[in-house]
Write a structure and sequence with these properties.
Keywords: DNA-binding, Transcription, Transcription regulation
Organism: Thalassovita aquimarina
Strand content: 15-25%
Number of helices: 6
Shape: elongated
CATH class of the largest domain: Alpha Beta
Protein name: Lrp/AsnC family transcriptional regulator
Distance between the termini: 13 Å
Pfam families: AsnC_trans_reg (PF01037), HTH_24 (PF13412)
């Protein structure tokens, strides 16, 4: 991937609905080579898809929660079981394997505190193999972006 490919990706991250004509102009390419590069970036998996960046509060899910989970054991069966169950939960927007005190960090969205309690009791607890759950509620966001930094 070269600098021009990175420019294309950053422009698409800023505006996924930009026309190829405008994209080409912003990255100083003619439209045909620009489109060819975009298609190549999609084909190799550098661009994994396109989506709408929606406001969770207006959607009806104003509460964002970071949930840190530590498993009781790290055998292959428990890890696969936990990860497959989490992948199936719509409330979980992200799940990361972590170093340090916890094994996983989840970013969860819910409508309110009662929904979160229901999520923990009915979705997380039944998984089993969980040693601890630590929760932090987001009460403000300082920065949120999906645009990668410019590597120069």
């Amino acid at each position: 991937m070269d600098r021009k490919d990175r420019q294309i990706i950053r422009m698409l991250q800023q505006d996924g609905r930009i026309t190829n004509q405008d994209l080409a102009a912003r990255v100083n390419l003619s439209p045909s080579p620009c489109l060819r590069r975009v298609r190549n970036l999609e084909a190799c998996g550098a661009i994994q898809g396109y989506s709408a960046n929606a406001d969770p509060e207006l959607y009806g899910l104003p509460v964002t929660v970071f949930v840190r989970i530590r498993l009781e054991s790290h055998n292959e069966k428990d890890v696969q079981h936990f990860e497959s169950r989490v992948r199936a939960m719509d409330e979980v927007l992200e799940c990361h394997v972590m170093t340090g005190q916890t094994d996983y960090q989840l970013r969860v969205v819910v409508a309110d505190l009662n929904d979160y309690e229901t999520f923990i009791r009915n979705r997380i607890h039944p998984i089993g193999c969980i040693a601890s759950i630590d929760t932090s509620f987001v009460y403000g966001t300082v920065k949120k972006t999906a645009v990668f930094p410019d590597l120069g």
